[in-house]
Structures are given as C-alpha cells and as structure tokens.
Amino acid sequence: MQNPPAEETETPLSVSPPKKWAAGVPAVVHALEYSLEQTSPRKTGVDLLAMNQVGGIDCPGCAWADPAPGRRHRNEYCENGAKHINDEATRRRITADFFRQHSVSDLAGRSDMWLNQQGRLTEPMIKRPDSDHYEPISWDDALGVLAKELTTLDSPDEAVFYTSGRASNEAAFVLQLFARAFGTNNLPDCSNMCHESSGFALNETLGTGKGTVGLDDLHHADLIFLVGQNPGSNHPRQLTALEAAKRNGGRIVAVNPLPEAGLRRFKNPQKPRGVVGRGTQIADRFLHIKPGGDLALFQALNGLLLEAEAARPGTVLDHDFIDAHTSGFEEFARHARTVDWDDVRAATGLTRQEIEQVRDEVLRSERVIVCWAMGITQHKHGVPTIREIVNFLMLRGNLGRAGTGACPVRGHSNVQGDRTMGIWEQMPDAFLDALQKEFGFDPPRPHGLDSVNSIKAMREGRVKVFLALAGNFVRAAPDSAVTEEAMRTCRLTAHISTKLNRSHTVCGATALILPTLGRTERDLQASGEQFVTVENSMSQVHTSQGRLEPASPVLLSEVAILCRLARRTLDGRADIPWDEFEADYGTIRERISRIVPGFHDFNARVTRPGGFQLPNPVNEGVFRTAVGKALFTCNEPVVPRAPAGHLLLQTLRSHDQWNTVPYTQNDRYRGIHGSRHVVLVNPDDVRGLGLTEGEQVDLVSVWGDGTERRAEGFAVVPYPTARGSAAAYYPETNVLVPLDSVADISNQPTSKGIVVRLETRSPRTTPTSS
After folding, report:
1. Nearest-CA neighbor of 99 among 59, 76, 69, 126?
2. What angle do CA 222, 226, 230 make, to 5 degrees?
C-alpha cells in the first residue's frame, strides 16, 4: 500500500453532545472501518478471530483478563483492541526511500497521528552524527554500533534500558538479564508513569504490588466502585464483566470528574439486547468528584463506617478479620474520627448526604470491590489515596474472599508481566540472588534509575546511551521540552519498534531504529515457530502466537535482537546461553521457572488452555509485610485547591487513541470531532472565567516554586466536568507537568490535579455544533 500523503490535513473542530452509552453497533462499524483502511479483509478476519482466543493472539491494547476457556465469545475483543491489532497489521510500509524523502527535522514537525499512519518499519536504520537523515544499516553493523557504545562507557550505569508493556515475558526477562549482566539496574518502564503508586501502596499495606481480584470476583460482587477510570475507552472489555455483575444483582458506584459514556450505559454488541435494546445501565450512582478528591472521599466513608459501628457495635466492622489479619487499627480509627467535613466538601465537591448514601450502599453489601486507574495514581497523593482504599476494604473484611478485593486496572497488555520478570530498578535481593544462583554472576545491588530519574540523569550528562524496548518514551514522559532536551544529550539512542513515533525524531548524536516483529506475526526461529507469554491485570499467564507473515523478511523478534546484542556486548562475561534463548524461547521459560516464584513447570502449564493463575498471597490469608499482617495506615487529609481564576486540570485519552498514539482527531464518546487541541470546562466555569465556547486559549500550569509551563492553542469546549476542573488530552498536555512534580513515595509523574489558568489568544473561533 502507498503511504498516506506527506502533507497533513486539518479539519475544523465540531462538537456534539457527549454520548450517554458506550459500544453497540457503532463500535463494530468504527472498528471495521479503521481495520479495513489499514489492512485486507482476510488479515482483519485472521487477526480478529484469533484475538484473545486460546492459542491465539493476546490483544496488545490493554491488560484486561480473558474469560476462562469455554466462556469466551468468538469475537472476544473490543473496538479499540480491533483497531490496535490491525493498526499493527497495516499494509503500509516505511522503507529507506521514506527516510531519504523525510529528514529527522521534517519528521519532528509531524503529528503523532501522521507518524503512526506511515506504516510498519521494515529495516534497521541509523542516523549518524551531524546527519539529519536516517539511512539503512545491516543488522550486524547496527548491533555492532550499539555494542561498541555500551562497552566504551565509563560505567554500566551510563546506560538506561527502558521497557514498554508491549514486550512479552520472554523479551522482558532477557532484557533485564542482559542489563544486570552488563552491570546496571537502570531499568525504567512504563509502570513508573502509570501504576507505580499502586505498587508502592499495595506492597506497603498488603505485601504484594498486584491486585487481588479475578473476573469471577467481579461477576459476583455486591458492590463495585469504579474510581478514576474510564472503562468505555481505556479497558472496554471490562464493561462485559460489569454487565455480568449487574445481571447477577451487583450495584456499581462510579467516581469520576467526568460522566463518561462507559460509566453510564453499555450496549454489548455481542448480545441482542446490546444491538436492538437499551443495553445495561452501568453506574447505579455517580459521584461527580473534583480531581484529587478521592482521598477525602474514602476518608469520609471510613469515618462514617466507624460511626455506624459505634452506633451498632459488632454489626458493621469485620472484627474477626481485623483482629486476625491486620495491624494498626486503633491508631487508624483515632485518626479517621478526626475527619473535617468542610475539608471533605472542599476536596470532593460532594455533600455529606451524597457520601452517606454511598455508605448505606456499603452497609447493604457483603462483597465489595474497588477498581481504580490513573485518575487515582497520577496525583501527588496517589499512594495515600490507595492506602485509604485499602483501609476501606479492610474495615469490612473485603479482602481474600470471593467477590471482594483491590483491583488496580492496568493499561498496557503485559505491563504487569514485565515487572514480574524483573523489569524494575528496585528488584528485591531474593530475585537477584536467584539470578546469581542460576547464571553464576553477581547482579548489581544498588537501585537503578526509574523513568523520571533517567531523564534527570540524561539531562545532567550522567547517562550516555538510551535503549528502548518498544514504547514511545518521549511522548509518555512528563515535561516534554525537558525530556526532549535530555534525550538529545545522549551519545546514542536506540529504539526497538514496530512503527514510527515521536521518540524516533528526538535523537542522540547517533540514533538507531531496530525494527521488530509485531505480536500479530509468525516468529520462526532455529527450533521452529515460537510463541510468547504475557501476564494480564489479574495475574493470569497465557500464550500469544502471531498468525500473519512478517511485514518484512529482515525483521527480527524482540528476543532475537536482545540476545544478539547481549552476545556482542558481554562477549562471554556471564554464563548465559544467548544462542539457545534466541533459538528456542522454551529455554528462556525454563530458566524463568527456576527464578520467578509461581512459574514452576512454566512450559507445561502455560500451554494448557487459558494458561495458569499466579498465586496471590492475600487470597491465601498471607500478608508479606514487615509485621506479617495487612497494615492500616493514617493518611494526612489533602484538599487540592486552585487559586481564583484557575482550574484543576486532568489529562486523559480520547476514545480514538492507544496510549500516546491517536488513531483519529476524534473523540466520539465525548462528542469532539476534528481536533485534539481542546480543553473541556464546566459551563459555569466558562462563564465565570469570562470565556466563550470555541475561544482559543493557552493552558498555563502554575507551580509552587513560581515556575510555569505552557501548552498553546486549545479551544474551550463547555463540558460537564466537575466544577472548578478541566480536562485535556495527553500527550499534548504532558508539557504542563514539570519533571520534579511527582507523587510522594512512588516518584510517579503527576498528570492529574494540575493547577492551570486559561490565557486568551486571538482570534476567536467558534466550533460547529451538531
């Protein structure tokens, strides 16, 4: 297929009312339209019918769990998953001719959407020092360039090895093994920027960084909280589980600054009622909360539960659970009774009556689950908020029982598996000891650099080489201008990628593009055709095997690229059989089975239909905390405030977007068409700030140290956001978040609750309304 036209076209902004339901027939139509625009009907059919099936392709789009074998629909995918998998299977190709036509400077001026639409990368490319063009290079020479740079560093800690959740378990394990054999723990990953706060909070309070909930738990819960998440766009298959919960009599409380379509009603296109009927109401109760008010909400709920227990002793709290399995209750209870309702009102925008009604829902429910996503984790107080959610669950024993638990909803498909495989700059000594025993080298023990600290180290000249396994680091990271400046200080940047993105245009002195197989493609190695494995958000490990022919005959798999690079770089320094690993991924899994807890008999168990479930100690009544029990915590109240004339901004994804890459300029569910440069503002705030619909403004973030950041040229769109708040799309607004603005404890960038003012630009433009 020919590449799309080189010139980008602009369409005028038009705005229609937000949708009141998600999915349905339009989701099927849009998925097929996009898929057929990218690839052939045959490939579309092959991909979709194999997607999320036993022995098929794991959806690269999100980490939602699959139903058990025998319970899966023949079309076990969502609109966004269908778009993503066929976006990867596109017929469009990028060749050396493309890079001769487009300089790096030219590509740097293109939009994220345009870069993605150019197609699949097909051969290794290099940008040499003092050149503004990529040019072809052989695999042998490309890996030689990278290996030479690594081996001439003054210290292994001058290299950073970044990983995205697109990587398989096998590739992630090989990468961390290579990095540690090389001598560094500099292993930042996308978790650092999305759910790091979840990991720290859950590890501290429960002794595990993972959620405790499975699909069956959701199906049979009495009450489910959806907090700071938008399942209709970001985890669409979650709606099917929520529909099942509602059909089984469960109730749902949605807590969000925006009344998203997926929180309202779901029309399941796999069911007749979702095609011709009204579908299923999702939220029984919607709390229109201010950004960052969730900590105050759960503190208020906990205080109300303690009040109810005092009024009816022995009937509200689960004292058996608290006495047997927890520590710190009395101190927590004293702290919780000091809740200030004026502060709660200021932080949440909710009345006491609204919160008391939720308390009554809790008291009627024997089994409660709390789900959350980045609307919680990306606040400065993200860790305390999640600790308070754990307090809430523990009060009534909603942990370790069927239909109960903590459910952090991960985004990228194998982001949880990457961490399990050792992609973390702070892996515990037990894991490092196991590596040492298995491979005979002593892994470095000092903690390495996470994503934010990697950027700081590059900016300061302490990191010279940056290697990324998938992802789009430059656009995922905060403080865009600072991040780009830092990347350009490197001697070499290298990206293992399937498609072109912004990070390829922000180069070190030397830059490499190392094109790799996609998850949809057949992976043939010396021992035969290979499969890889992934771990979903609910700790299920299963296989993924591509069906399509590779986009180019010269593509290498992620595992092959990393094994060849390790062999060239380490030159026998560790007793690691890189050739065997490349030839047969089963040999990697055999080593994993001896190192990572829960992966015994990995090769045998993972090939069973549906794979296997990793054990969760919480569900076995085991809490691996410092005191051997779950910990109640005391968390200081936080009231996010914006000065007069300012708003609290949250960044979010559009519906037609996957991570940092928009597929179109539209956001169908929110009624936005033709532009992503919009800021959604409550109509009362629009009037109060003296603005008008469609007015062009700059978003200026204001920070306590007096610094400011600016995102230019956004159209004001009146929208039912919470009063005093606003919303805009990332990655366009990542520029507003300084590198030093991070969550307490977890060091995760704070892309929510940003204090901004809207500065008027001229001329004014009025969007078309429909």
Report:
1. 126
2. 140
What's the CA gap between 595 and 174, in Å, rounded?
13
Query: Rounded to whole angstroms, how far apart are CA atoms 684 and 151?
Result: 60
- What DSSP line would sit under 570-595, residue for residue? HTTSS---HHHHHH-HHHHHHHHHHH
Verify cis geometry, omega within 30 degrees of 0, for the bond prior to 446.
no
φ/ψ of residue 181, rounded to 5:
-65, -30
- The sign one gets for the Cα dihedral 662, 666, 669, 671 is positive
Q: Write the pLDDT tens digit of every residue in 14-38.
A: 999 999 999 988 988 888 888 889 9
Give 1's pLDDT tier (boundaries 50, 70, 90): very low
Return the exposure string of 232-258: e unless at least 16 CB atoms fall within 10 Å of the residue's CB, then b: bbbbbbbbbbbbbbbeeebbbbbbbbb
d(CA 702, CA 696): 19
What's 4's DSSP letter? P
More confident residue, 312 or 765: 312
Domain limits, the chain = 19-88, 94-194+416-619, 196-408, 647-769
**305, 275 in Cβ contact below 8 A?**
no
Q: Quick check: bond before 18 cis, omega within 30?
A: no
The pLDDT value recorded for residue 2 is: 46
Q: Tally Cβ neighbours within 10 Å of residue 23.
A: 26
Tokens of 303: 């205080």
Beta bridge partners of 712: none
Residue 704's pLDDT is what? 85
What's the token pair of residue 135?
A: 């040019």
Q: Identity (one letter) of the amino acid at 343?
A: D
Q: pTM of whole model > 0.90?
A: yes
Q: Which residue's entry shows tokens 């024993």?
A: 397
Query: For domain 196-408, which CATH number applies: 3.40.228.10, 2.70.50.60, 3.90.110.10, 1.10.10.10?
Result: 3.40.228.10
Q: What is the CATH number of domain 94-194+416-619?
A: 3.40.50.740
Q: 53 vs 74, 171, 536, 720, 724, CA distance in Å?
A: 8, 22, 14, 39, 45
Half-sphere exposure of 670 (CA within 13 A, CB side): 32
Among 1-5, 45-49, 280-284, 646-650, which stretch is predicted with the lowest mean pLDDT? 1-5
Cβ-based burial of 605 (10 A; exposed 0-12, middle 13-18, buried ≥19)? middle
Q: Which fold has domain 647-769?
A: Barwin-like endoglucanases (2.40.40)
Distances (CA, A) of 609 to 70, 192, 414: 9, 32, 19
Query: How many angstroms separate the CA atoms of 722 and 395, rounded?
Result: 29
Structure tokens at 105: 């400077």
**DSSP assignment string, 722-760:** PTTEEEEETTTTGGGS-TT-B-TTT--B--SSEEEEEEE
570 within 8 A of 151, measured Cβ to Cβ = no
Give the closest residue to 743 by CA, choosing from 450, 379, 476, 449: 379
Question: What distance in Å separates the CA atoms of residue 533 and residue 417, rounded to the nearest whole number?
Answer: 9
Specify the amino acid at residue 503.
S
Rg, C-alpha atoms of the chain: 25
